[in-house]
């Protein structure tokens, strides 16, 4: 049993060694730039994959060259190793400006390529084959106006010629050193995206595992307050997890906090470093109270607290002092812990030997990372090959991986006394993986319920960006399309048949809406509510095409059922101001629109039943048409909707009728207009005569019949003094 446990505790360190070997093997197999030229003519992107743009790039210190500038005089420029900081170049200080150049010779056969840019320290402009592409921050020659920002980018490269010329202007006035510290990767577009995703997954995994382990032990401490080692171990794990966000070389930081500028990133990283030191020394003091010198413990605790305060309060030019302090104190923590572990192991204390073996390795990593980050303290040209491979392996990733290995090792040691709890962790971890996958599936499903156009109107890129109360005031056309006599229609169907019928109907109605730039905001049972943000004509054209699609739907239903009563609809369109946004409580949100224009559109649709037509538009929609004469339209009436005081005009769109009905309406349109004017002028006998003439010519024009009834009633009942031909609607 003891042997098995020891093997389990070695697993994190075996995994770490494998990661280092894979990184070194990967680095050594990639071609390297020489004197600013990277020869990839014998490289196969299909067979060999993406390539890291490492090696000696062209480098000009204290100069911001442009693509069109003449070649600098011999001796004014040299080379700099990438990835790396420019303080590794002789006589280059940490702050200033520089230009990097790389000429890449491409193979004749290659797929479409992309370039992943590892964000330079700390702002840059990039030129690809002389063309400027998106950089980060703001590059200036002096600190005035300079803006620092770390953001990785992926650029799709043009397929032009057999070489790529990169020119990068870099400025740094905030960080301890500038340069191309991060990896640049060239490969097929798919593989570069995969690389970027892999980096992000790696850092996300490091952060997540550290935080989960930390939170788990904080939970232990809540249940066992006497075990203060659990408290500091948990705080250290959480701090390491949080540290992975600002110190990440992947896209994790820009995903979590896309607008965070470099000064805040640096302050958070330096604060987290000192917090890890504080948690680490406190943990070892609780774990080995008889072996850790109390004076040294208090000294390191006080120093780390000072470092945390300095990271938050010092000017940015001095904020790197807490970083260096964390390196020194971190090394002291590991040295002190090493000797304490030796004393404990000699006494035969259990559960210390694995930690004792891990501490020297971690100390080496911390010292190396400190020297590497200082730039000028280590000259890569003088390093042995093995150390050079380690230098080229991103130590920003090696340190958190090493810390993760230590955290996991200590977790396994602590868990020896809690084997049953360890089983619980394993089960919860598996459930977490399943829950995450279920959450991803749920997120994919949610997108189907929220129109992309809705997100676009709110200027949101993802549903994750939408919050309760997000709204926008705008003007657009609102359409309601309602199935006539829906209730008796579905009463003869089973529930399955009713759902199939509605889904088939919407399947025919959706394309005309989307074709004309609209989107469906809601399905209201037998009614479709759609929005058209791109003008009144789009809504009217969509309504005409929807009625044409309805004929196709009816034919399909007749073919499927053998006999089918034609489905009829009413469509009402109105334009006006409205509010679009999110509605709901803290636990459930819906997207929706509110405004008087929405209510009016619904009322206009309901009037299609009364006027026995299938497409009505309001006066505001009619007035906003680019060319009303392009349509066959007649004004039907002026109506006062229930609850309103002012009348609105309603128009019938004749283009939506069958060819025969359309021809008949057009033949009587002028007569109908004359009759309506006579009606408004209270010449009811004349109006009735004209409407009867319309109805006699077109017996299917039931609007004329409606007016005949009105004329007869008005002739008997009279009209109010302020009446001007409008109809008062008593129902909604």
Secondary-structure map with pairings?
Blueprint: H1 2-29, E1 32-33, E2 37-39, H2 45-48, E3 51-52, E4 54-61, E5 78-82, E6 96-105, E7 113-117, E8 123-128, E9 131-136, E10 153-156, E11 163-172, E12 185-188, H3 189-223, H4 228-243, H5 252-256, H6 262-287, H7 294-313, H8 320-346, H9 353-374, H10 385-392, H11 395-415, H12 419-447, H13 452-457, E13 471-483, H14 486-491, H15 495-515, E14 519-524, E15 527-532, H16 536-561, E16 569-584, E17 589-594, H17 596-610, E18 615-618, H18 619-623, E19 633-640, E20 648-653, H19 659-680, H20 684-697, H21 702-717, E21 727-728
Parallel strand pairs: 1-4, 2-6, 16-18, 19-21
Antiparallel strand pairs: 3-12, 4-5, 4-6, 6-11, 7-10, 7-12, 8-9, 8-11, 13-15, 13-16, 14-15, 16-17, 18-20, 19-20
Work out the count of structural domains. 3
Distance between the termini: 80 Å
Structural class: alpha+beta
- Strand proportion, as a percent range, falls in 15-25%
Largest sheet: 9 strands, mixed
CATH architecture of the largest domain: Up-down Bundle
Mean pLDDT: 81
Helix content: 40-55%
Number of helices: 21
CATH C-level of the largest domain: Mainly Alpha
Q: What shape does the CA trace take?
A: elongated
Quantity of strands, as a count: 21
Radius of gyration: 37 Å
| Uncertain ranges | 1-11, 13-28, 375-396
What fold name goes in the CATH topology slot of the largest domain?
A: Rhopdopsin 7-helix transmembrane proteins
